[in-house]
Amino acid sequence: MAALLATVTISLLFAATSIPTIAAGAGEAVIFAFGDSLSDVGNNNYLPFSLAKSDYPWYGIDYDNGRPTGRFTNGRTIGDIISAKLGVPSPPPYLSLSMNDDAILRGVNYASGGAGILNETGIYFIQKLSFDDQISCFEKTKVAITRKIGILATKKLCNDALYFIGLGSNDYINNFLQPVLADGHIYTFPEFEDLLIDTLEGQLTRLYKLGARNVVFHGLAPMGCIPSQRATAADGQCLGFVNDYVLQFNSRVKKLLVGLNSKLPGAQMAFADCYNIVLDLINHPEQYGFKVSHTSCCNVDTTVGGLCLPNSRLCSDRKEYVFWDAYHPTDAANEVIANQLFADPDVGRVHPALGIAPSPSPL
């Protein structure tokens, strides 16, 4: 789940009554998403040299028109499902927009497959938008919004926003745990963890200075249990040491958010913990209507990336599988995760819009 884990990033903006009618209606959520392949809705399609793409079959087979969109799953991302719960369309990819488009007032997705907290993460994908890059894109969007609605209205939009951020999985799976890359040799695990947390603190502080006040950080899922990691184990079971890394990272991020809340006036940053949700999905799939959680619906080759290729063979019933490819959950699994995150009281306390009781979303 470099993706699962990785995870998903959403920002809700409630339009002020002084904002022109081209902005979202009063009380209507505007979403800005930051993240990696779990929340990418097509940004990497616009990066010509990126090797982290899903703009081909069988990705998107269960999405609206059955065609690939750049989402790394067979259907919806977690962000898509939460957008629907909030009654708004899923925001378009940043790289598909002009900063003159009125659409930027109603939501933008900055997520990029292969992205990490560290800029060097995913370097072998050639092109991707790191978290630093995504924040820079948001900064450009804010400038464009200011040109449209003015300084005061833009400030209110940003201060009222909810930023839902999901990153970190690629920093392990596509960086530290890769023997051919430098960071795993340069740093011990505690040193690498310190680097991630220190970098993330700077990035969240930067977002705060751009106006972010209400932040939900989507923690990492048990990466040691995703198909790509199981494939490296002699017995095909979960990699315990990878899950230990995840638990330590999640714990450090929780403490970081508490610290930022105490020192940044008006900051309300919450941790959305999906670790136990996903672990329960994997250990007890039948309780959620699934049958298979140890391997993926798409018969992938983990030696050549683990993505679902056009010549791959699919399972007979995609709703029975937790995982779509070697990293990413299926549409059906994303719905379970989104429902439970949406009902998390810690998340709900950040912004009233997220306190709505979850309701099933049709496929």
Automatic annotation (TrEMBL):
GO terms for molecular function: hydrolase activity, acting on ester bonds. Coiled coil: none annotated. Keywords: Hydrolase, Lipid degradation, Lipid metabolism, Secreted, Signal. The lineage of its organism: Eukaryota, Viridiplantae, Streptophyta, Embryophyta, Tracheophyta. One of its GO terms (cellular component) is extracellular region. Belongs to the 'GDSL' lipolytic enzyme family. CDD domains: SGNH_plant_lipase_like. Gene3D superfamilies: SGNH hydrolase (3.40.50.1110). It is found in: Secreted. This is GDSL-like Lipase/Acylhydrolase. InterPro entries: GDSL, GDSL_esterase/lipase, SGNH_hydro_sf, SGNH_plant_lipase-like.
